[in-house]
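Data card: per-record layout.
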Amino acid sequence: MDVRPATVHDSRAIASVHVRSWRSAYAGLLPDAYLESLSVDRGESMWEEIVLDTDMDSRVLVLIDGDQVVGFAHTCPSRDEGAQRGVGELTSIYLAPEVWRRGGGRLLMEQGCEQLRDGGFRSVTLWVLETNDRARTFYEVLGWAPDGARKVDEQRGFPVVEVRYRRKL
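The structure for this 169-residue chain is written out next.
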């Protein structure tokens, strides 16, 4: 597997990975009806916008296995209110379920953090579903730690409780 910057041509594959990953990773953690309503078509247009964003502080990386996009990560400056300058954010890191536990997540994480460090960021945060023990363990193994911040996101029509993790770059 290899990592490269995403292009707009990767948008549909990114959306497909996003939907498949959410349906697998969040089964039993988010409502089934919500997971079933996720749309690759809607996701494709969202990822096109993100990939085409000319803000050089926002980057999307894709994980390639052979010639297939099997994962992605998105980084940007922290979106948290009151975040200090020099704090980046890993907004997304998702892999197709068939490549879980093969080292691709670690590779994406390393490359995403390297991009942030090269961009002058000194630390990085991410938000994770409080009940997502598998992801939380993954982050902790890679040196991330909860920093005490917690939020309830209700934009999907039901409460999603997230905790923030932080790591120095």
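Known properties of this structure: The chain has a mean pLDDT of 94. The beta strands are 2-5, 59-65, 68-77, 87-95, 123-129, 145-153, 160-168.

See the next section for split statistics.
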